[in-house]
Every structure is written in C-alpha cells, then in structure tokens.
Amino acid sequence: MPSGRKLRWFFALFTLALLTGCRTTPEPSLARFEFSEPHMGTLWRITLFAPDAATASHAVRAAFARVHTLDNIFTDYNPDSELLRLCAQRPGTAVPVSAELFDILQKSERLSSQTEGAFDVTVGPMVQLWRRARRQRELPTPEKITAARAAVGFDQVRLDARRRTVTLLTPGMRLDLGGIAKGYAADEALRVLRRNGISRALVAASGDLALGDAPPGLPGWRVEIALPAGAGTNHLRALTLKNCGISTSGDAEQYVELHGVRYSHLVDPRTGVGLTNRLQVTVLAECATRSDALTKTICVLGPARGLPIIERDARLAALVVTAGGTNTTVLQSRRFPTVK
Fold it and tell me: pTM for this structure?
C-alpha cells in the first residue's frame, strides 16, 4: 500500500472527538477504548465502546488481524502478495483467487464502469512510472507513458464469479489497489468488530474512515475536515456521522514538481500523467470502500464532471476544494451534510 505519511497542507486532517452537545443519558455499561497499530503504510486507529477492557481488546485484535490479512493480499509492495502473483501470470491465464481479492476486484470493476474508467485498478504501470519520477525527480518519457498506457484498461480484466478466477488479457498488466484498499479494509475491520459484539465503533485509516453506530448518548461521531488555506475564514468543517464511510484525497505530500509543474501521485488512467489540478476531495458514502475510490474518481474527473456522479446516487455526498492561488473555491453536492 502507498505510504501513509502525515499530510500537511492539502490533504484532509480528520480529528475524531465526541460531540459535546445534544447529549442524552449515556449508557453507563459502556466505556470508551482507543487502539492504534501500523498497517498498510499508515497508522490505523480504532475507537470503540465496550462493556469492559477484555471485550474491547479481543474485538480489536480480531479487527487488526483482518486488516493485516488483507494487506498481505492487496499490497503491491511485496512481490509475494496474492495481487502481484496474479499479475505475474501469463496473459490470458484464468487464475483462481481468494474470496477477498475477487470481491475487491469485482467492486472495482463496477466502479470503473460507473465512472467511465476514471477509477481503474489496472493503472499500476502508470503508478510505477510516477513513483520513479518522484524518486528520481525526472519526468517519464512520452515513450514510457505510451507503453504504460498500452497495459492499462479495466476492460482487459475478466472476472468469472462461478469459478472465482481472474484473467488479465494484456501483457504487462499490473494491478494497483491503492485507491480502494484502505477503505475496503476499514469496512472489513468494522464488520469484524460487529461480529464480536461491538457496534459503536470508528475505524480510521489515514484519510479513510468507517463509522459504526453512534457513541452512547450522542447522535453520531464528530468528524472534522481541515480545509486548505484560502478556502475562506472557516478552515474546519465539523460533521456528525454514523453508519457510513468518509474519505478525503489530495496531493499534500505525494507529488513532484518538475519544470515548474506540480504532478500529483494520483495518475489519470486515461492519459498516464500525474494530476495537476490541485484538488482536495471529501466523499461521504454508505461504506468506506466507495468513499475511498470515489475521492480518486473526482480528483481525476474534476468537479464539473465528478460531482454529477455523486448527485446521481442518493447515498453519496461530496465536498471539493480547488486550489488556484488566490482563487481557491469550495464546492459541495446537494446532499453534503450541514456543518454543525
């Protein structure tokens, strides 16, 4: 998974706290517990309410174990991961895969179709080029970009649900789940907590949050979104949320400036070039899997084409900040929650 370093200016900072207002009588039988562990290149945090420390500890160990298992399947940094073993097979070979890998690829395929390829997990060859560009501070050549584009295309992946196999049709294909894996794993961690009797919980994986039932006596979890400088006098949006996913993406640290142009770590799968549009995107969805992927989609498409995708689905809402020097603008979909 990509590095989860703390993002400074242009990436959302989520600050989790209990809402101080609108209190009802709290449930005295439940206490608050917080846990953290490093996974997927970032620090994961789980906040939950449980009747005692033993129950909390047992549930959170199971949740983090699930995240660890998924990381071993999805990572593209370990050549022995199931994902990269799949990519190493000869093109046209139907490869049996785990239920988890098939599920995330199936969800990714659906998102690719819905976004006309703006979200595409086959973007791996392009991602590799731009990772090298950031390390070497050197633009990829047009020839290398053209070669990478030839190996990219979500329609070149065949999924067979009956046999649970995946077939990569084009030589040189390399899948990259960095745009969806943390959100997916956060949802899975929340499911594990629920199976262990913990429904009042929040799982935070850097900019991706999966929220369960509200804390005792409160209407929801308080989630604060830090907006970049220039977005107005109020640089903080505080929302009260439960039973949903919320994610933010931007280019705060993972970028490279070459020949006076700032290129994001996010790559447009249609062009093979790192994004230069300087966006911070927050998406609210029914789960973190979708919120994670859709932030990248809107970054690629821009607000004019990305927000209509959000507006078409009643389960979605988005906030988009466009940086342009003194012309920073803030746009939001109709269903984005009222700031409280």
Answer: 0.89
